[in-house]
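Hi team,

As requested, here is the filled-out complex form for the histidyl-adenosine monophosphate run. I kept the field names the same as last time so the parser does not choke. Let me know if anything looks off before we queue the next batch.

— J.
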Amino acid sequence: MSTINSIKGFKDILPADAPFWQFIEKVVRDVSRRYDFEELRPPIAEKTEIFARGIGEATDIVEKEMYSFVDKGEERITLRPEATAGIVRSVLEHHLTAGGRAVRLFCMGPMFRYEKPQKGRQRQFHQIDVEVLGDAGPYVDVEVLSWLNDFLHGLGLTGLMINLNSLGCPECRPAFRELLVKFFTARVESLCPDCQRRLEMNPLRIIDCKNEKCREIVKDAPIMLDHLCGDCTDHFNKVKELLDLLGLKYKVNPFLVRGLDYYTRTAFEVLSDDLGSQSAVAGGGRYDGLCKELGGVDIPAIGFAIGMERLVMLLKEKAAIEAQTPDYYLAVLSEAALPVAFKLAKDLRDNGHHVAGDWEVGSLKSRMKKADKSGAAKTIMIGDDELGRKQAVVRDMQAHEQTELDLAPYMA
Ligand code: HAM
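And here is what came back:
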């Protein structure tokens, strides 16, 4: 029978990579504690409607990429393609902003998008999500950007640039959209087929089309920043001022648009030159209208998500993270020594030590080979000789020095 492999675009995170993931998760928790962000763990599936309404019917995600199915109770369900819509659903359902304070949340976990897999792009991938709901002011915009900056520095990833833009609001965006449609309609023949379609459904997305010809046209297109209303202009200026106040580096990028429809005002991405075509490490922005869209309550919000696979790629290029190696390896040299070694291992573990062992008997040579492979700092050898003397031999694998360990307590 042939073996069964994993699903296309779904990857195992193997033990050799786990230390990178654990390091990232630790830094997320450290930074979140310093910034007073709490963890929320929503389910990985939601009712399909949450994403269709939240992310937008005309987005690539909702149009083509969702893993959706009808369950046995005839409910239409989708594996989350992103976390924000589900987090909003949870905050509304549990009234998490009821105390009058904004709620500051983070979440980590798998997301699912039926995209064409390539380097840095998978169908199951992982995100760190950071969201603040309940505050419309520019201070929280900069607080979440500061979280992001500190997190990247905490990982040792310097030199990544925050690209910043404002996407306006329901006051100013419709007129800008009209302008864009007018501009692109006059050049429709030269647009790629995808953008010709976008012109009707989602003209803002033409701005970040990767097609060379479209990019040439976009260079002369009107930009949102020139058409913001007074309130959006004030908000954007204040965000820049506060970023400067904290000394955070950023670049205003008027061509930055996002792939999800819910954004208003501040939008940003962190890009890296070291990731090839899938260069976005993180992306997010303000989504002041989403809560109303999903629940009828008006709660302003801002947040972003970081792609964890892409972080691991960047970290791997930078430096190896040392795997946790055992303090002790137990080399068992005779059948009679096996239960003694087993009990000793339990005692060492009870005392907080990291202990490795294979619970099989072998020659000294074969055991030492396994001890070397385990990377243990010390090897404890127990055979018939050691049982006779009630003393195990403890070898320091680096210094090649040997000491003894009393076996009497383990030889009842
Ligand atoms: P997004 O830009 O769709 O935003 O995704 C955020 C990040 O997730 C990307 O910058 C990228 O690093 C990673 N990512 C996305 N798709 C894939 C994939 N197929 N394979 C690997 N990595 C991927 C959102 O998801 C929004 N929910 C962000 C947000 C939160 N906005 C407000 N709050």
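Two things worth flagging: The two ends are 49 Å apart (CA to CA). The chain has a mean pLDDT of 95.

Thanks,
J.
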